[in-house]
Amino acid sequence: MVGEEGAFVLGWDEVLTEEELSVTLKVLCMSQEEFKEYKEQDGWEEDSEEEENSTLSNEALSRLKAPCKKLLYDSVLLTLESYRSDLKAEQDLLNNKEAYEKLSRREQQALHVRYGQKRILHQVLDLVR
């Protein structure tokens, strides 16, 4: 369901791997009975047109059902815990001109990437809280 990398791609405005995330959340939030029925229907093609045509925009994430929100929230927290520093530490380093300039160009670029990733993850936390 998730693909080879086992990750979902989140953007500023929407989930870029929306189909994978949508199906994964749907399956993981099903009861055993619902999953059995879903599987017996040769499942994945039986979705309603409304579900197929909806995108996982930020607004849609905030309207997820409570179990899906909880699962996504907990997953984002686990992802954030995998970083060595938090968002504030990255922001402080970006704001400290002297410390920032001591970093190599590669370290500066990595800092910007990490900071952007963490901001997006914090945004998702706010949406599904």
Brief account:
The chain has 129 residues and is an all-alpha fold. It has helices spanning 18-28, 32-40, 49-53, 58-62, 66-81, 87-95, 97-102, 105-128.
How does this model look, in words?
- This is N-lysine methyltransferase SETD6.
- The protein is an all-alpha fold and 129 residues long.
- It contains eight helices and no strands.
- Helices cover 66% and strands 0% of the residues.
- The model has no long low-confidence stretch (mean pLDDT 86).
- Helix 6 crosses helix 8.
- The chain has one domain: set domain protein methyltransferase, domain 2 (Alpha-Beta Complex), CATH 3.90.1420.
- The two termini are 25 Å apart.
- The radius of gyration is 18 Å and the shape is elongated.
List the SSEs and their pairings.
Layout: H1 18-28, H2 32-40, H3 49-53, H4 58-62, H5 66-81, H6 87-95, H7 97-102, H8 105-128
Helix pairs in contact: 5-8, 6-8
Biased composition (Acidic residues): 43-53
Protein name: N-lysine methyltransferase SETD6
Pfam family, one: Rubis-subs-bind
